[in-house]
Design goal:
Blueprint: H1 21-38, H2 41-45, H3 50-57, H4 59-74, H5 90-95, H6 106-114
Keywords: Membrane, Transmembrane, Transmembrane helix
Transmembrane segments: 21-41, 53-74
InterPro entries: APC_YAT
Amino acid sequence: MKAQGIPRSDLPFRVKANDKSPILGWVAGVFFAIIIFFNGWDTIAGGWNYQGFLTDYIGVPIFFALYLIGKIFFKSRWVPSSEADLFTGKAALDAIEWPERVPRNMLERVWFWIA
């Protein structure tokens, strides 16, 4: 959006902490990287166990392998930010009248604040 000069305020759905949304994405990425790294910590620090290591970390190479296979098989390319189509279907979304959601209890009030 920054590459195309579109302000975040034009989005129909946005994070309540709009100015912090790029930072929150990086925080989530670092958080999940830490989780993946420490996923099998007991097999590394508690004495080397190659079966446990494979079981704990096999998902990482599988993810990258499937990603690369998909890129090669479907011959897709990475779309630069300046060329991404952000307007197809936007007029239909802007025409929808979204009802105001009123929370019925404390749990919904917290959830509506988060979401």
